[in-house]
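Researcher: Let's continue the batch. This sequence belongs to Integration host factor subunit beta, and it's 92 residues. Same format as the previous ones, please.
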Amino acid sequence: MKKSELVDRVSQKVDILTKKQIGTIIDMIFDSMTEAMARGEKIEIRGFANFKIKERPERIARNPKTGQQIKVPAQRAISFKMSKALREVLNK
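Model: Same format as before. Here are the structure tokens for Integration host factor subunit beta:
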């Protein structure tokens, strides 16, 4: 689903706001989530999912084609864990 499709679906259910206003609200939600994750905060949306930052340590990897060792720097990644309610909907 693209953001424009999300805006369309919300606008079908909420006739008080325009599509532009709904798009602005969705942008603000995503911006708030991005800022929180950049600060290392966990995001919990009950009935949907949890998002948290995982710290991946620096490691040595190997290029499978050449066998050369490569140093992979430490990095942060997002972990997504769906809620029980979402899991039940997906596995009907």
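Researcher: Any comment?
Model: The helical segments are 3-13, 19-38, 84-90.
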